[in-house]
């Protein structure tokens, strides 16, 4: 059996593996299997988590941008905010449902407008899409009209 060459995984994968382990979601070997590394790598990542988080902060230049203390002071590890109740989940599901309906409505509206343009003899493919344009800052923009 040949040993795989050492993998340099992105920091976010290591942080996710560390969080899975520290939160007790899975055993070391299950986490190692999930991320495709050995269980010893998981142990090493957990032991070096403060160093890993500090490197991430330095590479992203969070220290200057967020006004955090500079220097060799250790910073607290970042934590993901868990959903507190089923109400949070229900609210997110309701918002997701609403956004899907709105997206479906807008897709149908675009299809209707394109078919109407074809009937009127206008070729919608000949115009430039709005995706590449910058938003308007003039007073004629919808925000400036007070609608």
From TrEMBL:
Under the heading Pfam families, the entry gives: CENP-B_N (PF04218)
Residues covered by the HTH psq-type domain: 12-55
Which intervals carry biased composition (Polar residues)? 134-147
Q: Where is this region: Disordered?
A: 123-147
Q: Name one GO molecular function term.
A: DNA binding
Q: Which SUPFAM superfamilies match?
A: Homeodomain-like
Name of this chain's protein: HTH psq-type domain-containing protein
């Amino acid at each position: 059996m040949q040993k795989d060459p050492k993998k340099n995984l992105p920091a976010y994968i290591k942080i996710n593996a560390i969080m899975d382990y520290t939160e007790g979601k899975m055993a070391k070997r299950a986490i190692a299997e999930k991320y495709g590394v050995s269980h010893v790598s998981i142990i090493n990542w957990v032991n070096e988590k403060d160093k890993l988080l500090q490197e991430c902060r330095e590479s992203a230049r969070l220290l200057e941008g967020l006004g955090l203390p500079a220097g060799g002071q250790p910073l607290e590890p970042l934590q993901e905010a868990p959903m507190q109740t089923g109400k949070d989940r229900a609210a997110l599901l309701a918002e997701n449902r609403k956004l899907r309906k709105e997206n479906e409505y807008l897709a149908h509206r675009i299809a209707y407008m394109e078919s109407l343009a074809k009937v009127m003899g206008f070729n919608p493919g000949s115009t430039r899409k709005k995706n590449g344009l910058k938003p308007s800052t003039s007073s004629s923009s919808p925000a400036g009209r007070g609608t």
